[in-house]
Amino acid sequence: MAGVPDISPAETWEALKADPDAVLIDVRTDAEWNFVGLPDIADLAKQPLLIPWQMYPSMEVNRAFAEHLRKAGLTEANSLYFICRSGARSLSAGMAAQAAGFPRAFNVADGFEGPVDAEGHRGSIAGWKASGLPWRQR
């Protein structure tokens, strides 16, 4: 696979539903998980794997990221769908995963909240929430 392909939130949902080995990995920070919310994939008998790409509050890259993927039991056979706030950190995480031997890495386009709208708010234009997919507060 050349590069990390972008995949829409709706396509991600369908892939998670169809593939028992597909995993959603939320790479945001614990603060974002706690205060913004999480994708809710319980209807698919799954839970998102929470592994931060950057560590809050310093926002340094998590140097143990690939190790965390392995410790979670993931292998090259898993399809990994990375999601962050808007799609930037998840793309970096997907590239790191591919470099670490996980070839089936995908970036959830527009992330959980998507870009800001005309009023400067996220969550209404694009992304997981704006696509009407299930989510919950932690």
Helix-strand sequence: EHEHEEEEHEHEE
Q: Which CATH top level class fits?
A: Alpha Beta
- Percent in strands: 15-25%
Count of extended strands: 9
Shape: globular
**What share of the residues lie within helices?**
25-40%
Give the name of the CATH architecture: 3-Layer(aba) Sandwich
Structural domain count: 1
CATH superfamily: Rhodanese-like domain
Main sheet overview: 5 strands, parallel
Polypeptide structure, described:
- The protein is an alpha/beta fold and 138 residues long.
- It has a single domain (6-136), classed as Oxidized Rhodanese, domain 1, CATH 3.40.250.
- The protein contains four helices and nine strands.
- It has helices spanning 9-18, 30-35, 65-71, 88-99, and strands at 6-7, 22-26, 38-39, 49-50, 54-55, 60-61, 79-83, 105-108, 135-136.
- The longest helix has 12 residues, at 88-99.
- The N and C termini lie far apart (34 Å).
- The model has no long low-confidence stretch (mean pLDDT 96).
Short note summarizing the structure:
This is Sulfurtransferase. By secondary structure, the protein is α/β, with parallel strands linked by helices.
Jot down its keywords.
single chain; 138 residues; alpha/beta; Oxidized Rhodanese, domain 1; five-stranded parallel beta sheet; two-stranded antiparallel sheet; globular
Task: Present the secondary structure layout.
Elements: E1 6-7, H1 9-18, E2 22-26, H2 30-35, E3 38-39, E4 49-50, E5 54-55, E6 60-61, H3 65-71, E7 79-83, H4 88-99, E8 105-108, E9 135-136
